[in-house]
Amino acid sequence: MTKLLVRVFALLTIAMIIAGCGSGSDSKVPLITEPDEPTTVPVPNPITQKNILLIISDDQGLDGSAQYALSADIPSTSILDGLAQNGVVFENVWATPACTTSRASLLTGLYPHNSNVTFVPAILTPEFQTLPQLLENNANTAEYAAAVFGKWHLAGGKSDADHPSKVGIQHYAGNLFNLDDYYNWELTINGQTELSTEYHTSKITNLAIDWIAEQQTPWFVWLAYSAPHSPFHLPPTNLHNRDLSGTDADIQNNPRNYYLAAIEAMDTEIGRLLDSMDEEELANTLIIFIGDNGTPQRVIDTSVYATEHGKGSLYQGSLAVPLIVSGAGVERLGERESQLVTITDLFASIAQAAGIDQSTIGDSHSFYPLLSDAEATMPDFIFTEFESAETTGWTVRSASHKLIHYENGDEALFLLSENFEEITNLIESAVPIDIEQLSQLTAFAETIFPMQSNDPIDITNAILTNQSANCTDYASSYRADATDINRALAFIGYLTIEETETSCTFSTNAIPNHHFNDGEQSFPNAVSEQNDLFEITNKPILATNKTPLSLTVDNAILLNGVKVDILAAGCFGVGDGKVGCNDMQQAWRYDPMHIPNGFRVDSHNAHSQPDGTYHYHGSPFALFDDNDDKASPVIGFAADGFPIFGSYFENEQQQVLKAQSSYRLKSGNRPSEDGSPGGRYDGSFRDDYEYVEDLGDLDECNGMIKEGNYRYYITSGFPYVLGCFSGTPHQSFTK
Q1: Whether residue 512 sits in one domain with residue 645
Q2: Residue 15: its pLDDT value, please?
Q3: For residue 643, what is the DSSP state?
Q4: Same domain, 593 and 468
Q5: How many independent structural domains does the chain possess?
Q6: Which of 392, 421, 438 is the last residue in one of the domains?
Q7: What integer pLDDT is reported at residue 450 of this predicted model?
Q8: What is the pTM of this model?
Q9: 535 shares a domain with 516
Q10: What is the 3-state secondary structure (H, E, C) of 386-436?
Q11: Which of 214, 373, 562, 645 is the most core-located residue (most Cβ within 10 A)?
Q12: What is the mean predicted confidence (pLDDT) over 409-425?
C-alpha cells in the first residue's frame, strides 16, 4: 500500500470514528479498522507544521485504561479505542507519582529536581523555559498559537490567577487548582476568575473548541481534564454508559464505578472536540493522550496492583500511565510500542513534531521518530523521583528490572518481566540478584541525580514539605546561606543529622537557613556561629507526668539547625525585667512574643542570646507555608523527641484546619500586692494565660495525637510552640 493510500485510509478511518461521537450511548461503539499491510515510512520532514492536541487525563492509570487490558473492570472508551487502533499505544510509559510534578516535567522537559518541582503543591517558577515559549522563540515554530485548557496546579498553594502567563502560556482557561465540585467551580481565563456551573469536562472542551475554531495558524493545545480525579461524582448521564444512582452513599461505597464513569464522560467529550474539526484540520492534527500519574489508592483495581502501590508511591500502579498517539505524522497504525518513555519526553517529542529538529532537549528525549519508524530507539533506562510525607526517593528501570531508592537508604529491586505486581524485593529475598543489572541501574541514576554525593543539601530559604514523624528520615548534611541584615554580615549555616539505632543527633552551627536580624533595631547581641550537639530519641514515649519548661533546658531543635528557647530570663520586679530572673518559681515572667514588652525579635520571632546563639521564641515562619491548602510538614523535634509540625492539620473529614491553642487570656485584672504587677491581663506575662481543656485542638503542652502518634503544633497564639514537655527531654538539651 502506497504512503498516499495509507494517509487517505487513516483520514477516512478517523472521520468514521468521530462521525459517531455524539453525546448518546450509541456513539460509544468502537470501530476497528487496520491497514491492509504493515507500513514503515521515513520520519516526516521536521519542518512540517501540524496542529498538536495534547490531552492529559488526571489520575488515570493502566488499570483504568481499556487499551491495556489489565483489569476486567474498565471504562467504555470508543474514542480512545479508535485512536489506539489508528495510532501507536506505548506500553512502558512513566509519569511521576503526582499531578504537579508530572505537569512541570511535561512543560519544561526537566526531571523534578531540575525544575525544582519535586512535591505537591509546588510552584513552577518563570526561570525555566516552557514548551509554548520554546515554540514561540524558535524560527521554525514561531507561527504556532498555544493554549492551555483545564487543570493547571503549578502555582503552589497560592491563588495566582496570572501564573500561567508568567511561565509563557499565551492563552489559559481552566481551574488553577483541584476541583471541589465538578458542577460548581472557579474558572480562570487569562487572569480573570469567575464561577462556572457547567460540568467541568464539558466546559473546558467547549473552551478548547471555541479557541481552535478561531485559529488561522498551526496551533498547540494542552487540554488538561480534571477527570477522573476526585471528587468522585455522577457525570451527566448522556456522557457515560454506567447505571449509577449518584447518591452520596453509593459514591462512597462504589467510588471506582464513578471514577470509570468520569473517564467515559471524558472520552465522549474528546470525541465531540474531534468532531468539531473539519476533515482537513483533523487530518493535520497530531493527537496525544496521556495520564499524569497512576490510579488513586481508593479506586485502584486491587486485582492488578496492591492498594499501597497506587498514586503517590514509586511503584508501577503510581507511575505507569497510558500513552496513545494518533493522527498527523503517525504512520504506524494499530501498533504497540514497548520501548521506555517518560512524561518528560513529551517536551522534545512535541517540539520535534512541530518542526524543531532536536531529538534531545534538557532531560527530554523525543519519541517522535517511533511514530513512523519501528526501528527508532529510545534510551535503555528511565528515571523519576518524588518527595512527600509518605514517599521520598527515586526509581529507575530498564526493560526488565526496576530499582527503587528511598531517602532513608532503603532499596528495592524488582524483576518486572516476572514480577509485575512488585511483590518480591530481590534485595531482601533468597533469589539471586542480577548484579550487572543492579550496577547499571545505579550507574544510570547517578548520571541523572548524583544522590550518593557527600555534598550537603542546600536548604537556603527552603519551605519544608516532609511530614514524617521519624527523625531518621531527615538524616543527611545540610547547608544554607544567610545574611545578618542590620549588620550586613554573611553567614553559612551547617547542620548534620545522623541516625543511630535508637536516636538522632543534630550537629549545628546554629545559623538559620534564612536572613535574620531584620527588625527596626539590631539585636543587642551579635549573632555568631556555635558548635551545638543535640540528641533525641527516635522512639519517643509519653511520660506519666508533664515536664514544665525550664530556663535550664532548651526546648527543641528545628530542621534548619536552630533551637527553640521559649522562656525569657525576665520577670516583673527583678532587675530591669529583661534578665536575671533565673528562679523558675518566680511569677510574672515576661513573654518575649508580646510586642509591647520590647524584646527585639526579627521577622522570624527570633533573636540572639548574649553568647550569640540565634534562637526562636515563636513560629519560625520561614520553614512552612502559612496557608490551609494542605497539612503542614514537620519543622523540627522537641527535646523529648516528639515532632513539631507547622500550624495546619487534616481532621477526620479531610478538612485542613489551623491548630488552635487551648490557652486564653484570663479576664479581669492581675493582683497588685506582694510584688505583683497589677493591671489587666493583656499577655505581657506568661501568667496572664490559663489553660482550658478542650478550648482548642491542643493539650496543655500544645500537642495532640494524630494518626496514632503524639505531635506538637505551631500556633499563632500562646504558647506558640510548646507549653510543656509531654515526654522526657534528653539531657543534651540541658544548657
Answers
A1: yes
A2: 38
A3: E
A4: yes
A5: 3
A6: 392
A7: 58
A8: 0.61
A9: yes
A10: EECCCCEEEEEECCCEEEEEECCCCEEEEECCCCCCCCCCCCCCCCCCCHH
A11: 562
A12: 90
Q: Which three cell numbers stand for residue 59?
A: 489520575
**Can you list the alpha helix ranges (DSSP code H) found in 242-387?**
248-253, 255-275, 279-283, 316-319, 346-354
**In 3-state terms, what secondary structure has residue 479?**
strand
Query: How far is CA 524 from each of CA 411, 484, 568, 611, rounded to the nearest angstrom?
Result: 50, 13, 15, 11
Cβ contacts of 330 within 8 Å, gap of 6 or more: 10, 86, 87, 88, 286, 371, 372
Query: b or e along 506-522 (b: 16 or more beta carbons within 10 Å of the residue's beta carbon)?
Result: bbbbbbbbbbbbeeeeb
Of 139, 186, 151, 145, whose CA–CA distance to 169 is shortest? Answer: 145
Contact 48, 144 (CB under 8 A): no
Judge if 11 and 35 occupy the same domain. yes
Q: Confirm if 25 and 31 have CB atoms less than 8 A apart.
A: no
Separation CA 276–CA 18 (nearest Å): 9
**Can you list the positions of beta strands (E) in 151-277?**
172-174, 185-189, 192-196, 219-224
CA dihedral 656, 158, 252, 254 (to 10 degrees): -140
Same-domain check for residues 64 and 211: yes
Per-residue cell: 596: 509591647
- In whole angstroms, give the CA distance from residue 730 to residue 356: 61
CA distance linking residue 322 with residue 265, whole number of Å: 17
213 backbone dihedrals φ, ψ, rounded to 5°: -60, -25
- For residue 34, the model assigns a pLDDT of 34
Q: Which distant-in-sequence residues (6+ apart) come within 8 Å of 735 by Cβ?
A: 551, 552, 553, 554
Higher local confidence (pLDDT), 22 or 141: 141
**Which residues, 6 or more positions from 83, have their beta carbon under 8 angstroms from its beta carbon?**
17, 287, 289, 324, 326, 327
What domain range includes position 98? 3-374+381-392
Q: Which residue has the cell 503552589?
A: 156
Nearest to 326, CA basis, from 37, 17, 59, 3: 17
Going by pLDDT thresholds of 50, 70 and 90, the confidence category of residue 16 is: very low
60 in Cβ contact with 291 (< 8 Å): yes
Residues 159 and 48 in one domain: yes
Residue 43's identity, in one-letter code, is: V
CATH of the domain at 42: 3.40.720.10
Residues 296 and 209 both lie in one domain: yes
Please state the rounded mean pLDDT for residues 53-62.
Answer: 98
How sure is the predictor about 45, in pLDDT bands with cuts at 50, 70 and 90? very low
